[in-house]
Amino acid sequence: xxxxxxxxxxxxxxxxxxxxxxxxxxxxxxxxxxxxxxxxxxxxxxxxxxxxxxxxxxxxxxxxxxxxxxxxxxxxxxxxxxxxxxxxxxxxxxxxxxxxxxxxxxxxxxxxxxxxxxxxxxxxxxxxxxxxxxxxxxxxxxxxxxxxxxxxxxxxxxxxxxxxxxxxxxxxxxxxxxxxxxxxx
Length: 185
Prior knowledge:
This protein is an alpha+beta fold. The chain has 4 helices and 9 strands, in the order αβαβββαβββαββ. The chain has helices at residues 2-22, 32-44, 86-98, 144-156; strands at residues 24-29, 47-57, 61-70, 76-83, 102-110, 116-125, 133-141, 160-169, 173-184. The protein is globular. The N and C termini lie far apart (65 Å).
């Protein structure tokens, strides 16, 4: 009996890592369009965005890596935006905000064409009939003192800071790219 209990306990302990692996899904690709598709496929299988990072991986080269975790309830949709022009990102984020997508994370990614892009992940809860809508504001500057002034002005206008990266953009070179948002009533 004692041996049977010990064997059952060991079997249960060995099963935990296998179960835990099914609760996490790591996605990695060097194409941002592929990543959005893979994120939405994972979401359909019951996963939700947890984090993003861009950079060089040992075998994949320059990749966007996303971690998703299994959630018991909920249905989510994702948009992944990538561009080296802050004006384009501002426009695309606003379109997503108008459609009820909420900022979840950002990183910098070296694109196939050799430039660096800011990558933003947005999420929408599909179970909500009327999702909240957001107005986004992107601030891009080379100087932290300018960033201080611009963020202060934006927060005074009702925006909340949600994320920041340092990116080598097509037009401005090395810039601090900050994203702020406010809920549209």
